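Propose amino acids for all 311 sites.
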């Protein structure tokens, strides 16, 4: 289904809609594998370039931003939260027990509920909210691959979206809000971008961009001013370059045609050196969970899908 006026009503139901796990046991557990583009690209180390797009777009929807504020330690332990939440999602894709890990991710959210600024309720396992969180990971695979690894053909984008349905099924949450085609997903994504709000969570999480990276305690201020200048320049060009304009607007992040041009040059350079990246040791090219999965099945993914398939 596409996002429309029913979205507001559905999301305010604030009720979890969970798939019956008992009924699933009679059927083979769905899973992705080495023949999927999600396996090939999701665990690529270059995905780190999209960390702010992934986390930020999710929390620009008020209910999810509020859920993080109400139930997370993001303000006290930002990196720790990322380390705790990232591995289970990775294992949903790459482990030999994907359904187990998908249900684990789901069950983390059973008690995440509360109210937003207008007094309406939210629940993290409401399908409209849970699917949006999933959609940001689907977008990450599509966007990071096409921007920094190599251009994807239309057929490959469709394939990644279709594979994302299997991925979502592993969580055991109703798919009632899931778009059915890649074109519907694009329309859904655009609609959700227009729902972004400057929630405290995402404004806080992008503070390092506006204010500059914080100085480590052991580094003298004069040294840090010099050392941090190129890092802050990279962040304000490359990291902000990955972010949708709607997120830049609600987070107060500066952007202009000059920075856009620099960003596109960087992205083109990254795609140009993709053949070099593909010669790196597998352990360097993939995050640990993906690397281990490729090793266990005895497949070297580097020669796979290096050239896009025709549309």
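Proposal:
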């Amino acid at each position: 289904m596409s996002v429309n006026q029913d979205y507001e009503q559905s999301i305010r139901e604030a009720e979890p809609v969970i798939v019956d796990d008992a009924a699933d046991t009679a059927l083979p557990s769905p899973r992705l594998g080495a023949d999927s583009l999600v396996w090939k690209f999701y665990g690529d180390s270059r995905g780190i370039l999209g960390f702010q797009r992934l986390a930020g777009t999710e929390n620009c929807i008020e209910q999810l931003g509020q859920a993080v504020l109400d139930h997370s330690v993001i303000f006290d332990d930002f990196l720790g939260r990322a380390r705790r939440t990232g591995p289970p999602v990775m294992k949903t894709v790459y482990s030999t027990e994907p359904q187990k890990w998908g249900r684990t991710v789901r069950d983390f959210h059973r008690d995440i509920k509360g109210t937003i600024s207008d007094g309406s309720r939210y629940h993290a396992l409401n399908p409209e909210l849970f699917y949006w969180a999933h959609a940001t990971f689907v977008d990450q695979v599509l966007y990071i691959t096409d921007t920094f690894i190599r251009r994807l053909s239309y057929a490959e984008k469709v394939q990644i979206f279709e594979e994302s349905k299997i991925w979502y099924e592993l969580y055991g949450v109703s798919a009632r809000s899931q778009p059915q085609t890649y074109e519907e997903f694009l329309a859904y994504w655009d609609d959700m971008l227009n729902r972004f709000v400057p929630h405290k969570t995402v404004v806080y999480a992008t503070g390092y961009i506006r204010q500059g990276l914080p100085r480590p305690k052991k580094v003298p201020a004069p040294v840090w001013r010099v050392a941090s200048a190129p890092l802050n320049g990279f962040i304000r060009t490359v990291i902000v370059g990955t972010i949708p304009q709607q997120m830049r607007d609600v987070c107060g992040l500066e952007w202009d045609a000059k920075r856009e041009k620099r960003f596109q040059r960087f992205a083109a350079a990254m795609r140009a050196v993709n053949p070099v990246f593909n010669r790196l040791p597998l352990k360097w090219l993939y995050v640990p969970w993906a690397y281990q999965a490729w090793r266990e099945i005895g497949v070297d993914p580097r020669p796979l899908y290096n050239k896009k398939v025709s549309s």
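The mean pLDDT is 90. The radius of gyration is 20 Å.
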